[in-house]
Amino acid sequence: MRIGIVNDMPMAVELLRRLVVSTREHQVAWIATNGREAVEACRRDLPDLILMDLAMPEMDGVEATRKIMAETPCSILLVTASIEANVAGVYEAMGHGALDAVDIPSVGIAGNASSQSARLLTNKIAMIGKLVRDAPSRASGRISVATDPSPQRLVAIGASAGGPAAVAKVLSAFPIDFGGAIVLVQHLDAQFIPGLADWLGQHTPLPIRAAQEKDRPQAGTVLVASSDDHLVFKSAQQLGYTSSPKDNVYRPSVDVFFESAAQWWPGSVIGVLLTGMGRDGARGLRQLRDKGHLTIAQDEATSAVYGMPKAAAAIGAAVDILPLSAIGLRIIEACGRPT
Hints:
The protein is of the alpha/beta class. The protein has two domains: 2-134, Rossmann fold; 153-335, Rossmann fold (3-Layer(aba) Sandwich), CATH 3.40.50. Helix content is 35%, strand content 19%. It is built from eleven helices and 14 strands. It has a seven-stranded parallel beta sheet with strand order 8-9-7-6-12-13-14, with helices on both faces. It has a five-stranded parallel beta sheet with strand order 2-1-3-4-5, sandwiched between helices. Strands 10-11 form a two-stranded antiparallel ribbon. Strand 13, helix 10 (308-314) and strand 14 form a beta-alpha-beta unit. It starts with a strand and ends with a helix.
């Protein structure tokens, strides 16, 4: 892949440059020292991937991501000094379409990146490279319902690039007495899930927490897949994790969870597929529709990256294709009907 590097620190730029050219598969397309330069560089020469810092002069990584995804869509990996210290910026940038985030590799005694931190970054680059090759496309007042103490409705949500902001928008429509059980599978490393849950909690009155082994979906509670393994139903009510299929590049996989819900959940399911690169979730959404469940895909106009919803639309997996602002209300409408 041709990779652009955006960072205002010379040492960081040199570390990233060495990592990129350490394999014959990649080359440096250009280097920018701030977000403004990156936006202009993309207009001249669009790379396959951008390694984007967050804190920079003139224009930060969040605004640069927003502008690039609006004008010249490109895969963006956030590589910054501390993800933990920039949680809000990370999820805001992901809302604009950044694919993932990682701390910049630490420096060893010889001035090179330490092997463990370098391996984490290079693995993410390799994963995004596969997603780029497989992707079918690149981007372009509350209502109250009666609480069901024993949830018969499951709202299964899948998302990837641009997902945090899209999920926040959907959840913001739900009232505190929302009667459905909600499970979210967001393509994101397990270490970032606690931060994601906290951030999403600012947008909804519903409790949000990481899904654990043997958890049971509960009415009015959001469970978030929290492992690099796949979240699945292991019985009609009980969740768990599995490493199979091991060769699935999407971890955790939306397809795997949707298919598990179609097989095990005893009540009705509302499957929702939001913005994201690739095609994960399309097959599982189709399986839910084939079993008579309501399925919803985000439309192109409101998707940060119209890959996963497009793949679902292409195979007729979605009953409804809706703008993001309408999805939450559609779910509430469906949950308001008797099962």
